[in-house]
Amino acid sequence: MKLKKDIAISDSGFLFNPSSGDSYSLNPIGVEIFKLLQKEKKDEDIIKHLTNEYAIDESSVEKDLYDFKIMLSNYKLIN
Questions:
Q1: Bridge-partner residues for 16, per DSSP?
Q2: What is the domain extent for residue 70?
């Protein structure tokens, strides 16, 4: 799964899809995950980064990342 290239995101978490005109709001962790996905980081690298950065266990991060990617797919933000 790859993010669509034309998706724009602000540091405050405002995400805009110019193809559809839809916009979304992400929390700070969502912004961080989205930016890591834009850099084409692997899931393992994202999980490692978030577990090192925040006091959260690996299984919770893995589940949250999976749920986040499902949401991106539902909103047609990934190919």
A1: 8, 23
A2: 8-74
Residue 2 has pLDDT above 90, yes or no: no
Tell me if 69 is assigned to some domain. Answer: yes
Structure token digits, residue 54: 């925040």
Instruction: Determine, yes or no, domain membership for 1.
Output: no
Quote the mean pLDDT of the chain.
Answer: 93
In a domain, 3, yes or no: no
The residue type of 19 is S
Q: Is residue 79 part of a domain?
A: no
- Assess whether pLDDT exceeds 90 at residue 64: yes
Please give the C-alpha separations between residue 12 and each of 16, 50, 51, in angstroms, as whole numbers: 12, 19, 22
* Number of structural domains found in the chain: 1
What single-letter amino acid sits at 28? P
Nearest of 61, 4, 76, 74 to residue 37 by alpha carbon: 4
